[in-house]
Design a protein that fits this description.
By secondary structure, the protein is mainly beta. Helix content is 3%, strand content 38%. InterPro entries: Delta_60_rpt.
Length: 424
C-alpha cells in the first residue's frame, strides 16, 4: 500500500504543484466508494492531548489541537510540537513546521502561498500578540504580521478560507474592535473585517452566543451555522441558520427548522457540534450530543436536512445512538462518516444506562451511514472511544481522523490515522 501511495504521489506532483495558492474551500471531496476499514501504517502519532482540527495545504497535512509531543510512524523519534504540526500526505514524514502557539488550535484552513490559517484559544503566535486568529507559513513557521485579525475574547472554533475571503466562527463578540457576535467574514490577506457582512446572531437568555461550527457550500454561495443562538436579526433561528453569502451581506435565507427547539439535558446551551454540506451542496448533515431523553428529540444523533428549498424543514432521516454523543461528520457521496464516543448505531430504542435496543448495531467510536437512508453501513473499523472523534479530513486518497485516543482499526494510532480508498 505504501508503494502504491508513493507512486500516486509522483503522478500528483506532476499535475498539482505542492506550492500554490490555496484552492477555494468546498464541502468534503467526493469519493467513488467507501474507504477501507484498515488504516495505513505510516501516519505519525500524537502522544498526548487531543487532535481538534485537520487541513490540507498542497501535499501537506496540518494538524491542530491541544498537545505537546508527536512521533513518527515507527515511534522511534519524538518531536516537540505544541498545538500544531504538519506531515506529508503521501508518506507521513513530519515537517519542520513548528510555530509557537500558546493555546489550543481548534480550526485550520488552507491559505495562499503555502500558508495556513489557525483558529483557536491562543493569545500569541511566535511570541507576538495574535488572539484567536493567525496566518503562518509552512515554509519557515513564520507569522504573517500583515494579517492583523484578533478576537476580543473567547476563541475561534471554525474557519473556512475561500479565495480572498476568510470566515470565522466561535465565542467572540468582536474582531479588530468591530462588533461581530460569533461569526465574521474577513479579508484573507489583511484580516480586516468585512463591514457589510453581519449575521446578527443573538441568544436571549443564553450565557454566551456562539457559533460552534459552520460550513460553506461547494459553490461558495451558502453558509450553514450551528451553535448557541436563538435569533438572526429579528428572525427565529434556534441553533441552526442558513445564509446566502454570495453577495456583500450575510443574507438570512427562508430555510429553517424547528427540529432543534426541544431541549436536551439541562446545561446544554447548544447540543449541535458539527455540520457539513454534501459534495453537491444539496443537503447537510448535523452531528449532535445532548444526552438522549426521548426518541422524539434529536439529542445524540445525526440528521440529514435538504437545502434546495426554503421554508420549514424536517429531517430526511435521523441516525440515533441511544445516548452517546456525536461530534464529527464527513460526507463523501457514498457514505456519511460519523465520529464521537458512541457505542451503537440504529439505536432509537436504546438508552445510555440500559444498553442497546432492538436492531442496534455495534459501531464503537466511528462508523458510516447510508446518505439516502441514514442506516448504518457495514464499515466498522472501531476505535477506542474516549471523548470522541473531533475532526475528519477527506482527501482524494482517503479519510483522515483526529481524536483523543490511540486505537483505530484495532491498531495503535496515536490520536491520528487515515483510512485509504481501496486500491489507492
Amino acid at each position: 500500500m505504501r508503494r502504491r501511495l508513493l507512486a500516486a504521489a509522483a503522478v500528483a506532483a506532476v499535475a498539482v504543484p505542492a506550492v500554490a495558492g490555496a484552492p477555494p474551500a468546498t464541502a468534503d471531496t467526493y469519493h467513488p466508494t467507501v474507504v477501507s476499514a484498515n488504516p495505513v501504517d505510516w501516519t505519525p502519532h500524537v502522544l498526548d492531548g487531543t487532535v481538534w482540527s485537520l487541513a490540507l495545504v498542497g501535499d501537506t497535512v496540518v494538524v491542530g489541537g491541544a498537545f505537546t509531543k508527536v512521533t513518527d510512524s515507527s515511534r522511534r523519534q519524538v518531536y516537540a510540537r505544541k498545538n500544531v504540526f504538519a506531515f506529508g500526505l503521501w508518506d507521513g514524514e513530519i515537517r519542520t513546521f513548528a510555530p509557537q502557539v500558546d493555546g489550543a488550535v481548534y480550526s485550520l484552513a488552507a491559505g495562499p502561498d503555502h500558508s495556513v490559517y489557525l483558529g483557536g484559544a491562543f493569545k500569541s503566535v511566535n511570541g507576538a500578540a495574535q488572539r484567536g486568529l493567525a496566518r503562518v507559513s509552512l515554509f519557515d513557521s513564520g507569522r504573517y504580521a500583515s494579517f492583523g485579525a484578533r478576537v476580543n475574547w473567547g476563541d475561534v472554533r471554525a474557519i473556512v478560507s475561500r479565495g480572498d475571503q476568510l470566515y470565522a466562527g466561535g465565542t467572540f463578540s468582536a474582531v479588530n474592535g468591530v462588533q461581530r457576535v460569533g461569526l465574521v467574514r474577513l479579508n484573507a490577506q489583511s484580516g480586516a473585517v468585512d463591514q457589510g457582512f453581519d449575521a446578527r446572531l443573538a441568544g436571549p437568555g443564553l450565557k454566551r452566543t456562539r457559533v460552534e461550527h459552520f460550513d460553506v457550500s461547494p459553490d461558495g454561495r451558502k453558509l450553514i451555522a450551528v451553535g448557541a443562538f436563538l435569533r438572526s436579526g429579528t428572525a427565529d433561528r434556534t441553533q441552526i441558520a442558513l445564509f446566502d453569502v454570495g453577495g456583500p451581506a450575510a443574507a438570512l435565507t427562508g430555510w429553517y427548522t424547528d427540529a432543534f427547539k426541544p431541549t436536551c439535558m439541562q446545561g446544554f446551551d447548544t447540543y449541535l457540534r458539527q455540520v457539513k454540506f454534501s459534495p453537491d451542496g444539496t443537503y447537510i448533515v448535523v452531528a449532535a450530543t445532548g444526552r438522549a431523553s426521548s426518541a422524539q428529540k434529536l439529542c445524540d444523533s445525526a440528521a440529514r436536512f435538504e437545502t434546495r428549498t426554503a421554508g420549514r424543514q424536517n429531517p430526511t432521516w435521523v441516525q440515533r445512538t441511544g445516548g452517546d454523543s456525536l461530534y464529527a461528520v464527513a460526507i463523501t457521496g457514498p457514505a456519511v462518516y460519523l465520529g464521537g464516543h458512541q457505542r451503537w448505531f440504529d439505536n432509537p430504542y436504546g438508552t445510555d444506562g440500559n444498553g442497546p435496543g432492538p436492531g442496534a448495531v455495534s459501531r464503537p467510536g466511528i462508523g458510516a451511514v447510508n446518505p439516502n437512508t441514514g442506516k448504518a453501513l457495514e464499515w466498522n473499523p472501531t476505535r477506542s472511544r474516549g471523548v470522541g472523534v473531533r475532526a475528519f479530513l477527506v482527501t482524494r486518497n482517503g479519510l483522515l481522523v483526529g481524536s483523543d485516543t490511540d486505537q483505530l482499526g484495532r491498531e495503535y494510532h496515536g490520536r491520528l490515522g487515515m483510512f485509504p480508498l481501496p486500491n489507492s
